């Protein structure tokens, strides 16, 4: 474990700092979720009003808006449920991950 004063560098982008401090932005794109996610968001397109709240609140920038739909990038989604909590129409629900 690195010293708590040590920060991330471009040479070692996956280095962690104790205390939950964030020293660099957009590092979640370097860390795929893997198989540990327990719940994942499921979108009901009929209920979705495309208000973009899920997009703005997602801490891992996993929600993408296209002309046709709202898409969730499950490679990086951690299953935190913030998108479902913030959705005013309840178009996003959290379902148990299978497998």
Rg from alpha-carbon coordinates = 16 Å
Strand order in the largest sheet: 1-4
Please count the helical segments: 2
Secondary-structure element pattern, one letter each: EHEEHE
Shape: globular
The largest sheet is: 2 strands, antiparallel
| CATH architecture heading of the largest domain | 2-Layer Sandwich
> Strand content of the residues, in percent?
15-25%
Task: Please report the total strand number as a whole number.
Answer: 4
Portion of residues within helices: 10-25%
Count structural domains.
2
Mean pLDDT across residues: 80
Per the CATH scheme, the topology name of the largest domain is: Alpha-Beta Plaits
Ends apart, CA distance between termini: 32 Å
CATH class of the largest domain: Alpha Beta
Instruction: Identify low-pLDDT runs.
Output: 1-10
Structural class determined from secondary elements: alpha+beta
How does this structure look, described?
By secondary structure, the protein is an alpha+beta fold. The chain folds into 2 domains: 1-31, no CATH class; 33-96, Alpha-Beta Plaits (2-Layer Sandwich). It has helices spanning 53-57, 82-86, and strands spanning 39-43, 63-65, 70-72, 92-96. Strands 1-4 form a two-stranded antiparallel ribbon. The radius of gyration is 16 Å and the shape is globular.
Features:
Alpha-Beta Plaits, two-stranded antiparallel sheet, 2 helices, single chain, disordered N terminus, alpha+beta
